[in-house]
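Ticket reopened. Same input as before:
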Amino acid sequence: MERIVNDFTINIATANGTGSQSANLILLQTMFEMGVPVSGKNLFPSNISGLPTWYIVRVSDAGYQAPGDRTHIQVLMNKDSWVGDLEKLEQGTVVIYNSDVKLPVERDDLILYPVPMTRIARGLNPKLARMIANIVYVGVLAEVLGLDEAKLEAALAKQFGGKQKAIELNLEAVQLGRQFVVDELEVSDPYVVEERERDPDAFLIEGNEAVALGSIFGGIGLLSWYPITPASSVAEELIDHLPKLRVDADGKTTCAVIQAEDELAAAGMVVGAGWAGIRAMSCTSGPGISLMSEFIGLSYFAEVPAVFWDINRVGPSTGLPTRTQQGDLTLVYYAGQGDTQHIVLIPGTVEECFEYAWRAFDYAERYQTTVFGFGDLDLGMNRWVCKGFDYPDAMDRGKVIRSQEALEAIPEYGRYRDVDGDGIAYRTLPGSGLEPILYRGTGHDEDGVYSENPEIYAANMQRLARKIEGARDQLPAPVLREEEELEVGIIFYGSMENTIQEIDDILEETGLKVSQCRVRALPLHSHVEEFVNRHETVIVLEINRDGQMYGILRTELPIELVPKVHSVSFSDGIPPRARVYAERIMEVLEEVHE
Amino acid sequence: MTIKLNIIELPKSDYQGKPSSLCPGCGHDQISTVIINAAWENGIPPERIAKMSGIGCSSKTPAYFLGKSHGFNTLHGRMPSVTTGACMANKELCFIGVSGDGDTASIGMGQFVHAIRRNLNMVYIIENNGVYGLTKGQYSATVEKGSRKRKAEENRQNPIDLCAMAINLGCSFVARSFSGSKKQLTALIKAAMSHRGIAVIDVISPCVTFANNDEFFRSYGYVKDNETELHSPDYIPHHTPVEEVDIPAGEYQDIELFDGATLRLETVGNEYDPSDAMAALAAIHKAEIDKMHVTGLLYFDAEQRTLDEELSLSDTPLVDLSDDELRPDEQALADLLAEFRS
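Engineering reply: fixed in the latest deploy. New output:
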């Protein structure tokens, strides 16, 4: 039998709240330490304990990180999803199952490895048997796939944070799992993990932790937040890291963290802190953005710096709270009543999560407005390979007047007077005594005084549009990977980065060479228009139903370019699988060519 | 003629604002005047004050006082959250928040109670007239059962008593006053400015346009005839030694405030102890049953820690920290990455 090395997908079906996440992360970390390109996706329910949860491990020398089209190895631990999980499996799939569950596995076209995991676990510690059974499957997989023993031990020690008793107990469970395979099973599957050269600089990290760290290194002074999946871990990681990174000589903190009563208040605190001169941020998801919209509009109109991270989950409404989507793009781009438009930074990697977290503050203070970080559950809550973070540039605090001399140097100062043509006016801070005004969300003239004057209102709105327009080419440019042919160009953004190469390769197998353009910010950089201009047909790829980026492109591109732009948008809550999108791209191209 | 200056040698004009655009005779304008007097007489530098408000008639008033102070006329019911953020940025400012009964007791109830719960260091004034003025006089949630505004049915719903609520939440300074009681209101607002922690002052402030008829419990006529004063408050600033002030003829109680000032409560009728929350709630309930308004310092507790203290914020206000103090250095990032890689 031909061996299949480092190219398969494992699906682990467990029950939520049984400690399986620890087991899965140990597995992921072990393979990562072996230098094997691997990614993990946690498909978890909105539930504390009991409902089915799945963890997908993609092992791929090609570097593919999407969930993959099919499962090659299925681990069955959960009686509730047992039948459904089995039904989906293709012929030849390996099934490692807990034989103590006492449910039938009535398929003779699969490779079956029954293991009495509960019994093994009970033998070790009857009270913790449910948890330990999960570690037993780690041992079984380790033996079947040939995982490195020392690296597995190290990963396990890391997961249990040096708690010696837990480490010993779990190591024993791993050993028993391994031993059972050796003693009782005839291993007859082709799947093998082989060590590769390990990049010594790389480590695994979740996008949300990278956002938290980027904010800390960006000089955040206030985080106000309301708990919500999948954004809470941004706040929790920030809280974890602050004591080490942001404590002054007296042992006091230089960053306030407030768990607000709701997202209305969380956003209000951000606006208040930004108004008073510090860098403030909140992290939330779609439902929170809905509530924050009134303050986002205020930030836009009163011109107060504010940073909001939307870790997108599936909408509409409460939607699928623990699943991933890019469904909030237009929501964040235009949040608030009236004519509004916001700067949106869209990281596609964990490195960019860190970078955009500190850059967001620079942009917010430079443009005196709301800046969004736009991530999603997939990027935010799963662990990704990271090469490291670059130290941020010097802070850009924007046009803030801090002294009488600086004030006098500005001809005709007015809080909302554009004295140099970039649409951005100078501001002074409360406490400074310099040109104080009463900030307001109502109409105001160039001096900040209440006004309903039609000319003043219209001119102010034009200036605001000019200000945001001026940001366009100052924001991160798209990442372009172009083919010589310039026939088909794919525009995509965010966490689709982790699937695009596999899509590209599937298309290339059919003889189709496509260029890639990964958008990293809104409003769209002029390079995006140039990319569209250069290609014959452009497809906008995204993880939502309606093609929201496609809609934005239609609005912002010159009208003559619009006919060559097409949409491929799909969302079912699962991180994007390459074949689903590749097939749709081919369908659209066929229609275009007809 | 010499212009009178305060202790920091500023004229009162430095504390005034733009002309009011509220209805002539509005109670809110009287409160604005009291705020101007209190800040001037207390000698607070205008630039050290931040005036905050939500939306509504009352929330417009920061335009009419303290023109040399920065301010923020925020969103409906959201003044407390904006003040919270601003206070974290600059904890040394004196925050004066002005809100109304609609702004606080309805749309902003959530933020009001949570600002109290956090003991945010601010003065929170509610200009409470029982109606929504800007939208033409609808009842608000503080209007008393049985109260009736002009050309309308009487209100049949139970009122929300913001002082009782604040006391139940453990608010460190709770007072009720009347826009027509200038002396009492001035003493209470001055004391609130000298207090560290949240000071809630619920001020009955009649709406002369929509609800100033005698059947309305918050009209001038009604309040004048139905006010029960707990005591007669007198404010003695920190720069006046309390021993040099004449001792009142009757009973009194002195309350020491955070900045060294004293609030002297002279007994009127029965003795009242503002450290007794039960007595405060009883007084409010009795007044409600009697269709009266009880005014004065209802509750006071100097011991509570403020939000910035609870969070252990750096001694220097965050806004005054340098970029280097706000950002860990390159070595910190290198150490962190090394830890991740190990």
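Chain B touches chain A through 60 residues (CB under 8 Å). The mean pLDDT of chain B is 97. Please confirm and we'll close it.
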